[in-house]
Amino acid sequence: MTILITGATGNVAAGAVDRLIDAGLPVRLLVRDRAKAERRFMGRDVEIATADIGDPKALDAAFSAIDTVFVALGSSLEQVDLENALIDGAARAGSRHVVKLSTLGVAHDSVASVPRWHAAIEDHLAGAPIPVKTVLRPSTYSANLLAAAPSIAKTSMWSGMAGQGRVSLIDTRDVSEAAFSVLSNDDFAGRTWTLTGPEAMTYSDVAAVLSDVLGRKIQYVAIDEDALLTRLQTAGLPAWFIDLAVGLDAAVAGGVMSVVTEEFEELTGHRPLPIREFIHRHASAFGQ
Fold first, then answer.
1. 101-137: b or e for each residue (b if 16 or more CB lie within 10 Å)?
2. What whole-number distance in Å separates Cα of residue 217 and Cα of residue 240?
3. Please, what's the largest Cα pairwise distance for the chain?
4. Are 208 and 275 in contact (CB under 8 A)?
5. Whether the Cβ atoms of residue 197 and residue 169 lie closer than 8 Å to each other
6. pLDDT value at position 50?
7. What parts of the chain have a pLDDT lower than 70?
8. Could you tell me which CATH number the domain at 2-138+172-195 has?
9. 164 near 202, Cβ under 8 Å?
10. Dihedral (C-alpha) 53, 244, 195, 107: value to the nearest 10 degrees?
11. Residues 212-248: tens digit of each pLDDT
12. Architecture of domain 143-166+198-258+273-286 in CATH?
């Protein structure tokens, strides 16, 4: 039976798609932008379906003959409604297995918006009439550092309100590999997996690694919430994204993202990518 991938052009889902295709498994992508999906998977043996997630009839057609669904949309104000609609579509279609990409620190009372959204979606999944349910809860992505890369390249510093909170940064490619494992192997299905990097570090620790790799002094400067809000507002970012970014730093400061597990290794047979190797791979972005 075919595996349906939502959010298929996002970093995590796209990486999982590549692995599924390489393994010879039948894959259908559910996308809103067919042209973007065709560019990303040009020359690959993959079926592409387009549908408005808010249209149940269109979803029912896309879910036809689907055994397993990967729910992996990007963060947005509509994420709860959209992912719940996908879960409902899987239930109507009689799909056997739903894999939900969530986040570390899921809680209805989280200081950050994203864990609150995922808590609502996980609740909806728990109550859905779907036989097998698997949840992936990755820590903060190493790729989030790339948002600071222009500042690091230009000024050799970046700032935030995470303070001395620790975070177990994980590479998106590792999360893609973990997703592939649970999508392709029923031995891993039906439980919640907490996915983290190999160690929990403060951003000052990360700055020290950046300094060593890049060969110049890099600093992480701790600022308060008002200063961060002013900086993000000056950059013209939308209010919901500012709330997301501030909440993520607050979660790190509060120790929510400091968990370290060996569950990625249990899924894949190897350890996750250390932050040093991530920085080496992206050194040019940081101004090397």
1. bbbbbbeeebbbbbbbbbbbbbebbeeeebeebbbbb
2. 33
3. 57
4. no
5. yes
6. 92
7. none
8. 3.40.50.720
9. yes
10. -90
11. 999 999 999 999 999 999 999 999 999 999 999 999 9
12. Alpha-Beta Complex (3.90)
Contacts of 187 by beta carbon, 8 Å cutoff, 6+ apart: none
Q: Summarize pLDDT for 92-122 with one digit per residue, the tens.
A: 999 999 999 999 999 999 999 999 999 999 9
Q: What DSSP state is assigned to residue 145?
A: G
Supply the DSSP symbol for 143.
Answer: G
| Beta-bridge partner residues of 125 | none
pLDDT at 1: 75
pLDDT for 215 equals 97
Per-residue confidence (pLDDT) for residue 102, from 0 to 100: 98
Distance CA 169, CA 143 (A): 9
What single DSSP character describes residue 236?
Answer: T
Write down the domain spans for the chain.
2-138+172-195, 143-166+198-258+273-286
Query: Whole-prediction pTM value?
Result: 0.96
Q: Alpha-carbon distance 66 to 47, whole Å?
A: 12
Structure tokens at 197: 């990097």
Whole-Å CA distances, 64 to 26, 31, 70: 13, 15, 15
pLDDT at 275: 98
pLDDT of residue 245: 94
45-83: b (≥16 Cβ within 10 Å) or e: ebeebebebeeeebbeebbeebbbbbbbbeeeeebbebb
Instruction: Enumerate residues 6+ apart whose C-beta is below 8 A from 88.
Output: 56, 128
The gap from C-alpha 13 to its chain's centroid, in whole angstroms, comes to 9
Q: For residue 209, how many other CB atoms are within 10 A of its CB?
A: 17
Distance, CA of 184 to CA of 68 (rounded, Å): 9
